[in-house]
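Changelog entry: the Cadherin 9 record was regenerated in this release. Current contents:
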Amino acid sequence: VGTSVIQVTATDADDANYGNSAKVVYSILQGQPYFSVDPESGIIKTALPDMSRENREQYQVVIQAKDMGGQMGGLSGTTTVNITLTDVNNNPPRFPQSTYQFNSPESAPLGTHLGRIKANDPDLGENAEVEYRITDGDGADMFDVITDQDTQEGIITVKQNLDFEHKMLYTLRVDASNTHPDPRFSHLGPFKDTAVVKISVEDIDEPPVFSKISYLIEVDEDVKEGSIIGQVTAYDPDARNNLIKYSVDRHTDMDRIFSINSENGSIFTLKPLDRESSPWHNITVTATEINNPKQTSHIPVFIRILDINDHAPEFAMYYETFVCENAKPGQLIQTVSVMDKDDPPRGHKFFFEQVPEFPLNPNFTIIDNKDNTAGIMTRKDGYSRNKMSTYLLPILIFDNDYPIQSSTGTLTIRVCACDNRGNMQSCTAEALILSAGLSTGALIAILLCVLILLILVVLFAALKRQRKKEPLIISKDDVRDNIVTYNDEGGGEEDTQAFDIGTLRNPEAREDSKLRRDVMPETIFQIRRTVPLWENIDVQDFIHRRLKENDADPSAPPYDSLATYAYEGNDSIAESLSSLESLTADCNQDYEYLSDWGPRFKKLADMYGGDDSDKD
Ligand SMILES: *[C@@H]1O[C@H](CO)[C@@H](O)[C@H](O)[C@H]1NC(C)=O
Ligand SMILES: *[C@@H]1O[C@H](CO)[C@@H](O)[C@H](O)[C@H]1NC(C)=O
Ligand SMILES: *[C@@H]1O[C@H](CO)[C@@H](O)[C@H](O)[C@H]1NC(C)=O
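Regenerated structure tokens:
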């Protein structure tokens, strides 16, 4: 009360020195009882204690200024002042209800929002900001509350996995408090409010639960078929506690080595085990609720096969060695090492001995080096290829695991000639080939030689066949072939003048005809054309002349039908035989195409040209 808000001032134009006519006094006409005005200074002050913005925010205050010292008869003026109350944080947040109730399924994932609570604060802005906190309750560890900054609500969330079978109902005490409390109002009591939140957990049908998150079973590899090697157990976590049945996931045990008792979960073998082929069998076991087959769980079962000494040690490789003819006694000729498929936990330990069934070997000594290797040494001198080319030395190898396993390895030792430094120079012929072997280069060379030989043989055979084909076919069956190649239409077999079928049957004559064909009529033409002879000459003369010319021409072939009969002549009684007449009239024509007609002209001539009277 009494806090000044604003000062108002009025002026009076009258003379202030004269009486009270300019003496102004302020009074409040409107705005009481909230505000008062100082009559002298015009300062407006608060007048009411515990003014509440939440109740009323806006005030209109009317102030009057009156001269004459406020006396009756003075003149007055008024002004209006609008006053707004600003907010202070004088209100704590308040829950509208003291208890809230929420539900959550037991399977709710962490962070699930279960519900919202809100404490109201009538203040404005940051004075109305609220934060929520769980202060107490048996669910304080299981749940959390976060503040939604936009709505100033508290959100209850799941903090830990719930289990209906473990606890069905939780209670929380949640505080709501202002983030910006005003210490001036701390006398009004704690600036917070508390509500009780009850959360009930709902039951969900859950799959079976195994007693472990995975199982490791160790079993000796010599375990008998049908033996129980381990057990898994699962139970239904639900209140109903359904019965469980077990099965092996067949995809993880393709060979059906294992099986499980569906009632009590005992795992047993169906087949013999072998650590050397598969040291681990990692299978999956499924547990299913009998009354509710949809509820299933899977668990990995790692089955480790433990080693049993069931393999004998053997030479690590095939050993073949030699001894020099000039070797001295006590020379080391070979060191042998062995391997064993077993995997004893303390590592391998091997021993080497002479085979006991044989008498003491007078030729070689076996030295056990005590480091799982053995050295073979000469025992005498004077090894001779001629006397004995190869020695076979049996060596007994055994391990020290239980049960002891042993084997006999045989070392092949050849006798060879060596130089002074002990380098092998030659063994027996047999040994040489076997030990030296054939280098790949030599093999390729040999193969190449064989290949070249083959090619040569094939080429030779082909050449021979070609040469055989060269002579003309003499067989009578092939005569037809030659008729076809003969470029003459002919008149059939009766047409003996066209060609003599007898010639075809006579191979020698055919040789001649073949020669004829070699020369193309074209060349004949060229020669003839140089001498144009056929104008106004009697056909008979023309033919005779042409015949003579051809007889005298050494280069002309005897196949002269074109030259001889290309001229029809003007005086033929048979008139024009063809359009050729018009051609002969025009001597400028190019007769080159006639070369194609050569054989036909010969035929025409045979029929008509030689004898005018033979009109038919
Ligand atoms: C499970 O049942 C089989 C067959 O009835 C039995 O041989 C085995 O001993 C049982 N396993 C356990 C762990 O009781
Ligand atoms: C089986 O599981 C073991 C242990 O996790 C692992 O060392 C082994 O490699 C697995 N074997 C196979 C075949 O998956
Ligand atoms: C030892 O060598 C001799 C020949 O030098 C041979 O007759 C004899 O059989 C060999 N003994 C053994 C056990 O190999």
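The chain has five domains: 4-84, 99-202, 209-306, 314-435, 476-613.
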